[in-house]
Structures are given as C-alpha cells and as structure tokens.
User: What shape does this take?
Amino acid sequence: MSDKVKKAAILLLAMGKDAAAEVLKHMNPKEVQRVGQAMTELKLVTRGEVQTVMTEFVETVEQYTGLGVNTDDYIRTMLVGALGEDKATTIIDRILLGGSTKGLETLKWMDPRAIADLIRNEHPQIIAIVMSYLEHEQAASVLQLFTDVQRADIVMRLATLDGVQPAALQELNNIMERQFIGQNNIKQSNIGGIKSAANILNFMDSSIEAIIVDKIKENDPELGQKIQDLMFVFENILEMDDRSVQSLLREVSTESLVIALKGAEENLREKFFKNMSKRASEMLREDLESKGPVRISEVEAAQKEILAIARRMAEAGDLMLQSKGGDDYV
Assistant: This one.
C-alpha cells in the first residue's frame, strides 16, 4: 500500500468508527475499497505512528482557516495540486457546481450489468453522460455489455462531450429519480472529453477496444486518432522513468510478466531487464527462452493485467504514466 493510503487508514482507525463512517460517506467506492483494504492489513501500529499521523493531519488543517480564504479557489488549488489538472477538473465540477450527481454517485456502487440494464434503452447521449461519471474501469465493464455499434456511438459522444446543458442533465436526473431518492439542482458541469473516452477504452479487451476505435475513425478519423493518441498502451512503458518501472515490477507476478513480454519488442524487454537485479534479469531471460508458444490473446490479457496494475498505482501516486500523446496519465 502507498504511504498516503496507510496514513489515511491509521487516521480513520484512530478517529473511531462513528467519525470514520462520516468520512467514508464522502469517498468514492474505489477509495473506500483501497482504504478499507489498508485498514485490514494494519496489524501492529505503534503509538508513535498514530501520534505522527495525527500530528501531521492537525498541522495540515491548521495551515488553513475560513478567515480571509476564498474557499472555491482553495479547493481548486488543493485538488489540482494533489491530483493533476485532468483528474481534478471532474471532481471540482462535482463539488463546486452543485449537488446534481447524487443518483450518478449511487451508480458507482452498482454491478456493471445492473447499470447496463438501467440505461440500455436510453438515448446514447444520456448513456455517454452516465459513463463519464463512472470510474473508468467500471465504465469499461458496462460498455462491454453493449453491441459494437452502440459502443462506438457512445464513445464518440463521450469524447466530444465538454459540457452538460441543464435540459440534458434534467433528463438524466429524471432517469435516476425513477430508481433513487433525491432531487438535484441543475447546473452545467464540464465532464467527458477525449481523455475520458481514452481512459475507459484502456480498460477494455484489446479486440473490443480496436473495433471501437476503428468504427470511430470511420465516422471521424481525426477524433479517432486523438482518442488513440491519449490511450496508454503496453509499449508506453518505454516512456516511464526507471523508478516507476521498478515500482511496477514489485507488484507484477513473474508469470504474467513472462507472458506479456513474449509479445513485446526487444527494446521494451530491455526496459524491464535493466530495472531488475542482474540475477533476476538472467532468470527472466531464461524463462522467456524456455517458454513455449503463447497465444496472442494470452499475451494481450497479461499486458492488460500489468497495465491495470500500473493505472492503479498511478492513481495512488506511486508512479507516473505517459500516453502516446505525451500527456501524463494519472
């Protein structure tokens, strides 16, 4: 677990279950899962560790007060500094532009098939808006439950979505109200976009991902290329710094790495070799030489598994990824 997640887990345990429950209400499902897992892994925490975390938390809070501070500006600066511009923008919109996403936030706790069944018969534009609010991995799972034609249409709409007008958001709220309790205020929110579309496609099977991109290119070659350029693929590991590769190697199983590298170019293999100890790299070379033929589908699955680990680590701030377009992927 990352140092930040460990500190959060220690802080929540020290707060007591009632206070911790209130904090967890304001976190998304992925964050709750990550911190909850960390809490279960904390076996022995010394009094000194707890004191250190509590002191750091208090010192951080005491740096800011409500006197003379522009709250909106502070929140924007804090989130952008912590998460980067791309990831922070969506969260900022949800926080500062009104409480219009209660139903959508509830969707994040639902099974992908249940979400697909709920929105399947809605207008593709509405489906695209829903996808933009889901976690990328969850959205990818939902998208796989649609047909090839529907997927391409939804992703195209998602990629060109740079704002939600009140009428569209009202329609979406009406859909949610049929399933969930609560009224929401209607305010424009900047969601979706090419990066969001690329992030979702990153979590899909390679064969499905290729079909979607091809269909988008048939309708809009420029848009399809922009999406493809922002996708993080296995070859982009070449652009990662050595420290990030070393961190990734600690989380990846040897078996998955061997299969993934069976279909990789020599320069990418060397990227991994040089970030391992001499003995470990020699063993990996031997494993690659002794490994028999592997199906392309197995290679792609192993590469996707490693990419999923890399994305999770990037979201936790443990490494930095970079897409083909040269933008940081966080």
User: Anything to note?
Assistant: Residues 17 and 225 are 49 Å apart (CA to CA). The first strand starts at residue 321 and ends at 322.
